[in-house]
Amino acid sequence: MVDRQDTPTRPVAEHERGADSPAAVFPPSADFAARAVAGTDFVESAAADRLRFWGDQARQRLSWHVEPTETLDWSGAPVARWFADGRLNVAYNCLDRHVEAGHGDRVALHWEGEPGDSRSVTYAELTRDVSRAANLLASMGVVAGDRVVIYLPQVPEAVVAMLAVARLGAVHSVVFGGFSGESLRARIDDAQAVLVVTADGGWRKGAVAPLKPAVDAALAVGGESSVRDVLVVRRGGNDVDWTEGRDHWWHEALEGVSDVHEPEAFEAEHPLFILYTSGTTGKPKGILHTSGGYLTQVATTHATVFDLRPESDVWWCTADVGWITGHSYVVYGPLANGATQVLYEGTPDSPAPGRWWDVVEKYGVTVLYTAPTAIRGFMKAGREIPQARDLSSLRLLGSVGEPINPEAWLWYREVVGGGRTPIVDTWWQTETGAIMISPLPGVTATKPGAAQTPLPGIAVDVVDDLGTPVADGESGLLVVSEPWPSMLRGIWGDPDRYAETYWSRFGDRYFAGDGARRDEDGDVWLLGRVDDVMNVSGHRLSTAEIESALVSHPIVAESAVVGAADETTGQAVVAFVCIRDSVTLQPEGKEAMVRELRAWVTRSIGAIARPRDIYIVGELPKTRSGKIMRRLLRDVAEGREVGDTTTLADTMVMSKLEAQVRGN
Ligand code: WTA
Question: CA-to-CA distance for 115 and 208, rounded, in angstroms?
């Protein structure tokens, strides 16, 4: 029986909604309210004693070789130490203990390749695969603390490689396959990685996208690298170049290696991974996460926000393992909780637009976690596509990566969720490691478009520039006011940047870089980034990084990049470029130049950073002190009337620029 307490009940106050936002809240269904994994008791226990709550979660949800007696040490702020006297092995927690508990035959991964091949891997098999890979890496000289770069498509070997590295106490740095060889090299160098695990290629949009050539390119330039060996998974079947002595086929290297490996216990604060993300400068930040606190919070949030029932649910998080969402909600959270999940290699529309819904139907997916950009893409393709499939297995839907607009939220619930599934809009970041703000499906009456409530054990605030909390209804900056278990422990190799970026503004409160507002019920609405970080299809990109890629091209004198609103991708990269005086440009040459510059950005950062539009202009709008006024460029990029130009050094610049953009 479907409980239908899901009709909108009360109008949302006028100030809470944009012009397009419907007046609706959805209370939890009776079913969720009665049986949710996290009910009001859970919320109250955290409210009563936050640190005790986290200590309990750590002990109850994880298996420790040595149970922690300490919870939080914040004396060396801004570096927190959580559960510091505890010892554990993260991979053991994700694998062996489930087998020991009698769940070895439970499927861990239902892997679906884009061309239609598939493979299911049980917990017993995954434990053996990871043990064997750990033995291999150890035999290649990888020891605790070493960094290993993983540059793979979405295949089971990606999960195996990550867990094998973790099992040895080494540190993985997964680089998303959409990054170029140059970006890969920068990450290898920054982390001084000793080994790279890659593949010949992976399937994307109906074809093999090669990966190994990018690794070859990365290691060929810029002098000798720290990398000793490259392990290559065979997936794409494409031809690859080979460097004898350095390159090894994964399947050949694993032959004859024992699948028994005794996991060693490491301190809770032992580094687990580095994940590079974009900041406000040209150089990506290596966000560092450690073991015990991270695993505690990803396991807790995965179980409670998604109401996970490991014995019956089929979980599907559509994120790539190259992003934090893939780390926390494909690998560590679900596996720590013993979940069965779907792992899909390709794009939503390959070979046809209904592919995702076929996957949901095939595996009986019960809980789906995806990004608003995907939902908007499906809206555009038409509701008849999901409606032609049986999606009745779905019971809960999640959203992450950017603010979800209310229409997309409502469409998701109605068309994908058949009007019965709760939606959890989850706010968090690479830096926070795990979900921080989200409804709980058994507790929260949800509002389309709002992430709403800090989770139990999490404290946030909305403040003004000086750090004073703003009144409900007013916009301000989001801060996390107390340390949390899965918080980043630093930026790899750059403690000053860590302190400066996140902690210099509001003392011991973490500055997230997002704008936010609380409504009259105290619910949090996220308003997007307040810095020069863009969010394109839920992926973080830095304006500064793309600008510096553009100006490294010999013909470019100067550039300014803005994130312009885009119906499908949330934001799109739009670049304004001034050409060097020495270059004479024929009007018919413009198109070729724009093409060349887009290819240049793809080569230097990766396809994900390719600008949607590039406008060649004579001059950029600047203040008298020389600061580029991106606000005005955003007006142009979004086709709006240009705002106040009085602070420009030369007020004529904008009208000339607009004329040039029209002529582009
Ligand atoms: C944005 C992704 C609004 C936000 C997990 C944040 C969101 C950045 C939401 C982090 C949400 C993520 N509502 N905005 N539910 N989720 N964001 O590091 O601007 O790739 O700062 O982590 O995405 O992106 P990141």
Answer: 10
